[in-house]
Design the sequence.
């Protein structure tokens, strides 16, 4: 039998997770503060490493969306450090009793939050994920083994060096946060077969990666991060206020999973709204894939939507547009095409809003707001390890509580079962 090449890494991560169990909230917060400081101290090296990755990525012809995800700047690094501060300020969920009850026999029974143990995270292009995963894992007493994409290798090495310097400064094992330091794709399969030491795998990438993990992982998998996001503008919407929301959801950062992919417009307001959408978004570089009812209203920046266009996560300045008869048709369209990430309804009619919220089962549903809020930082979670679109264990931005499980604790007075 062939030995898994990552077995030593898994063994070290498991041992490190035991060391983390002994840390109290104050010690973990001190560690996170040290990581934030180390990122500042290592900023020049991190940005230089990221520029190496960016140069290689440009030479390889990576898309604009991928380049944007890969890029680190002083401002983005400062935002990452600020997110660490937010995580520090959050309550530590580990050791908290979710509920407690006194049984008829006098025994006290409680469910107590505990770390999951060791996390395996596979991700592409975004070096900030390296810090997000490390910070959230350590705050919840979990060790982490990460496998970033080959396009982020230099950036991730530099970020890991900063994280390890903080662990060393706090006299904690650097094996608590490990990086698979090779682009060899065979190591992804090895990671997915390391169920003896990894308790949960979180893939952050495209549909192909998610499918691979679901098919090959021998441990639980949390999938998410693929967003086919919708906004429905109802006949009762305030169109003047709705238009900036369309722009925000589509244009602010089109390469992320919570960006708008499909705009659904009630037929009663389509003739008024869609020319305004074209006039406002067209000069910003947005092109449209339109249903027959929307095509002529959008002008020259639009072309007829083809097969599969409404099932596409664009990650670019492309917007699907469809005219619908009412909220019922909008709901039917979303149910047929959504990845269950984020959806929004824009309306002044409370009944329509309530119907939409009740009928849509996506991880995040908004009333009169942009889909761009589906984010750990925006939700007050600090950072996020992923945005789960599953229905079990965790949904939406996965913050601290999503990285814990629980154990039953029974406290008796020398109780014996009768």
Sequence:
């Amino acid at each position: 039998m062939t030995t898994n090449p990552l077995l030593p890494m898994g063994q070290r991560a498991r041992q490190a997770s035991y060391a983390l169990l002994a840390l109290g909230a104050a010690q973990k917060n001190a560690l996170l503060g040290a990581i934030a400081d180390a990122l500042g101290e290592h900023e020049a090296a991190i940005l230089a490493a990221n520029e190496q990755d960016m140069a290689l990525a440009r030479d390889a012809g990576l898309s604009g969306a991928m380049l944007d995800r890969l890029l680190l700047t002083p401002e983005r690094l400062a935002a990452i450090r600020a997110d660490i501060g937010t995580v520090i300020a959050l309550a530590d969920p580990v050791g908290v009793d979710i509920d407690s009850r006194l049984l008829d026999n006098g025994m006290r029974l409680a469910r107590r939050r505990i770390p999951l143990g060791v996390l395996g995270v596979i991700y592409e292009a975004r070096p900030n994920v390296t810090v997000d995963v490390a910070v959230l894992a350590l705050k919840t007493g979990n060790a982490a083994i990460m496998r970033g994409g080959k396009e982020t290798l230099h950036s991730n090495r530099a970020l890991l060096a900063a994280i390890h310097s903080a662990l060393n400064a706090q006299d904690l094992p650097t094996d608590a946060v490990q990086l698979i330091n090779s682009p060899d794709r065979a190591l992804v399969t090895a990671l997915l077969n390391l169920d003896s030491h990894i308790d949960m795998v979180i893939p952050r990438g495209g549909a192909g990666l998610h499918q691979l993990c679901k098919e090959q992982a021998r441990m639980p998998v949390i999938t998410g991060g693929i967003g086919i996001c919708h906004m429905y503008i109802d006949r009762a919407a305030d169109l003047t206020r709705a238009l900036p929301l369309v722009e925000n959801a589509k244009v602010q950062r089109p390469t992320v999973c919570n960006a708008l992919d499909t705009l659904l417009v009630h037929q009663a307001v389509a003739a008024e709204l869609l020319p305004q959408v074209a006039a406002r978004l067209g000069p910003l570089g947005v092109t449209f894939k339109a249903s027959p009812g929307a095509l002529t209203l959008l002008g020259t920046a639009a072309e007829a939507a083809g097969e599969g266009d409404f099932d596409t996560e664009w990650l670019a300045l492309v917007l699907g547009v469809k005219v619908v008869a009412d909220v019922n048709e909008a709901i039917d369209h979303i149910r047929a095409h959504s990845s269950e990430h984020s959806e929004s309804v824009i309306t002044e009619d409370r009944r329509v809003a309530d119907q939409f919220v009740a009928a849509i089962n996506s991880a995040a549903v908004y009333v009169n707001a942009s889909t761009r809020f589906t984010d750990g930082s925006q939700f007050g979670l600090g950072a996020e390890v992923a945005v789960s679109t599953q229905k079990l264990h965790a949904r939406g931005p996965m913050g601290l509580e999503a990285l814990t499980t629980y154990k039953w604790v029974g406290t008796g007075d020398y109780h014996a079962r009768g």
Summary: The first strand starts at residue 97 and ends at 102. The first helix runs from residue 7 to 21. The mean pLDDT is 94. The chain has two domains: 7-222+398-411, 229-373.
